[in-house]
Structure formats: structure tokens, C-alpha cells
Design goal:
Elements: H1 12-29, E1 44-49, H2 55-66, E2 70-75, H3 87-96, E3 101-106, H4 111-118, E4 125-131, H5 137-151, E5 158-162, H6 169-180, E6 184-188, E7 208-212, E8 224-227, H7 243-250, H8 254-257, E9 265-267, H9 280-283, H10 290-309, H11 311-315
Parallel strand pairs: 1-2, 1-3, 3-4, 5-6, 5-8, 6-7, 8-9
Helix pairs in contact: 1-5, 1-10, 2-10, 5-6, 5-10
Binding site for carbamoyl phosphate: 55-56, 105, 136, 139, 270-271
Family: Belongs to the aspartate/ornithine carbamoyltransferase superfamily. ATCase family.
Keywords: Pyrimidine biosynthesis, Transferase
Length: 316
């Protein structure tokens, strides 16, 4: 594996290997006072973020450092991007400086793919940490890791993705990955927050995708519900009347959570808009796996870096 650019094109066997590696790394580090492995010693990992981030950026940095890589953070606000340097020139500069892996987040859909094509003549790997409204593959992988822990797997499970599907790269990556592993995914959103071409999204042959505009009837049949952040920064115009009305129709409060089966899991990629997308009581309840997602994110990103930078060497 040279790059990780999306879950569309990531075959289930490769995804399963990454998830199994993440699980193994988590067990290896469990109880260790010093969480440090020598696996990527001598490797240089650069995070190149053109958008703000807490969870993704921090977890990639921790993942690299726990594997003894040298991690360098580059933000658009503090780099030559502010002077007008193009993404292409920035990428070539980082590769020439010795980057073994560039982890990129960019507001333009397809940016990670373009970056990978510009670096095709180098040994530098590219990881998509979110490109516009397109994909966020490591988020989908950590969500899958969390569901495997809580549910034992997703084959035959019914999983709802609720909220701002239109602007969500998390939803797109999860739809392909979850259906590839045999899940039925239900997209629940108002018509204004669903893409017009949602029926053309890539769906794994083992699973299925359905669309609903009404959350309440779906809740008793769900094994997991994944709430999405309402991305106001990407909205130009009125997509729903008000935050209050959105919360009434699609927010997961205590009354709605009581309709879920006892085993059902609540996920959220963060940051949460408490009181709108999810109530405080549900976010902090035992059925919520939101902090577990963050923990699993570190191990999944460790596994991704391992397979990009060291996996083939170790196999040899």
C-alpha cells in the first residue's frame, strides 16, 4: 500500500488487515507506562493541514510519536502558503526535504489524490486526512474499529448515519466501508442535507444503502447510530429553519435514545454540537462510544502508518 486516499478503492481484505493491526497495537500498548515502539524510527511524517483540526491532527501526531517517527506539523497559516505557494510546490518541497509520509487535510475535494499524483515519482506516501466533502478514510476505519469492539462486527447490522450528509466526508467514507463489510446503512437527513446523487455513491456488494427523512421509525431497528456535525461553515443559504427545529427533528435526546435496542451504540466524529445534534445526557451515557472513537483513532492511525512505511519491510 503506497497511499491511503479513500475507502472507495480500499478492498475489505486490506481494511481488515489494518483493523487487525490496530487491535494488536492497542493490546501491545495496554498497561504500558511508556507508550513507545521503535517501529518507525528514522522515518519522517509531516501533517499538512489547510483546515483546523483537533482529533485527527493530534491522533496522527501521537500515532507517529508512539512509533518513534519524527513528526513535523505544517499548517497553512504558518507556512509559505500564506505567501501564495501552491499545494503542488508545497508537496514537492516537503518530499524533497525528506518526508516519508505527508498527511494532508484540505478544503478542496480531490486534493489528496492530486497530491499523490504529484508525488508519484517519489517514495513519499500520502494519507487523506479529509478533503473537502469527499472522503476521510481513517475516520471510517476508526469508526469500524469501535463498532467491532462494541458489536463484534458489522455484518448484518443496521447502522444509521444521521444529519448533514450533504457536506460530510465522514458519511461518504463510512458508507463504502460499512457496506463492504456487510452492513445495511441508513442515511437519515432532511432532503436539503442529502446529496442529489446519493444513489450513485459506491456501495459494497456485501451490504446495502437506504435513505430516510424520518429518524424516529428507524431507531428501534438500529444496532448503531452515527450522528454527524452540522457543518455551518460549508453552508451558504438556509438548509433548515433553525437549530431548534433541527434538534427537534434529528437531534438524539434521551427520549429518542430510549427507542434504541439495549445493545445499540452511539457514535459521533466530533466536534459535537451538544444540545443540537445530541443531548448532554446521551453524549455522556454508557451507550455512547465517542471517547472510544478517539482512542481507537490513535491505534488505527498507527496501523495505517505502519502499513505505509514499514509493513512490507517487516514482511520481508
Amino acid at each position: 500500500m503506497k497511499h491511503l486516499l479513500g475507502t472507495d478503492g480500499l478492498d475489505p481484505d486490506t481494511a481488515r488487515v489494518i483493523l487487525d493491526t490496530a487491535e494488536g497495537l492497542k493490546k501491545t500498548l495496554l498497561g504500558r507506562e511508556v507508550k513507545k515502539l521503535p517501529t518507525l524510527r528514522g522515518r519522517t511524517v509531516i501533517t499538512l493541514f489547510y483546515e483546523d483540526s483537533t482529533r485527527t491532527r493530534v491522533s496522527f501526531e501521537i500515532a507517529g510519536k508512539w512509533m518513534s517517527a519524527d513528526v513535523v506539523n505544517v499548517s497553512a497559516k504558518g507556512s509559505s502558503v500564506k505567501k501564495g505557494e501552491s499545494l503542488r510546490d508545497t508537496a514537492l518541497t516537503l518530499a524533497a526535504a525528506g518526508a516519508d509520509c505527508v498527511i494532508v487535510r484540505h478544503p478542496a475535494s480531490g486534493a489528496a489524490h492530486r497530491l499523490a499524483s504529484w508525488l508519484s515519482h517519489t517514495n513519499t506516501s500520502v494519507v487523506n486526512a479529509g478533503d473537502g466533502t469527499h472522503e476521510h478514510p481513517t475516520q471510517a476505519l476508526l469508526d469500524m474499529a469501535t463498532l467491532r469492539e462494541r458489536l463484534g462486527g458489522v455484518e448484518g447490522r443496521r447502522i444509521a448515519i444521521v444529519g448533514d450528509v450533504l457536506h460530510s466526508r465522514v458519511a461518504r467514507s463510512n458508507v463504502h466501508l460499512l457496506t463492504s463489510f456487510g452492513a445495511e446503512v441508513v442515511l437519515v437527513a432532511p432532503p436539503t442535507l442529502l446529496p442529489t446523487a446519493v444513489g450513485d455513491w459506491p456501495v459494497g456488494a456485501a451490504g446495502s444503502l437506504v435513505v430516510s427523512h424520518d429518524l424516529d421509525p428507524e431507531l428501534p431497528t438500529l444496532d448503531a447510530v452515527m450522528l454527524l456535525r452540522v457543518q455551518a461553515e460549508r453552508m451558504h443559504g438556509g438548509f433548515f429553519p433553525s437549530a431548534r427545529e433541527y434538534s427537534i427533528a434529528y437531534g438524539l435526546n434521551e427520549a429518542r435514545a430510549s427507542l434504541l435496542p439495549e445493545h445499540a451504540v452511539v457514535l459521533h466524529p466530533g466536534p459535537m454540537l451538544r444540545g443540537m445534534e445530541i443531548s448532554h445526557a446521551v453524549a455522556d451515557s454508557a451507550r455512547a462510544a465517542i471517547t472510544e472513537q478517539v482512542t481507537n483513532g490513535v491505534h488505527v492511525r498507527m496501523a495505517v502508518l505502519y502499513h505505509l512505511l514499514a509493513g512490507e519491510e517487516d514482511a520481508a
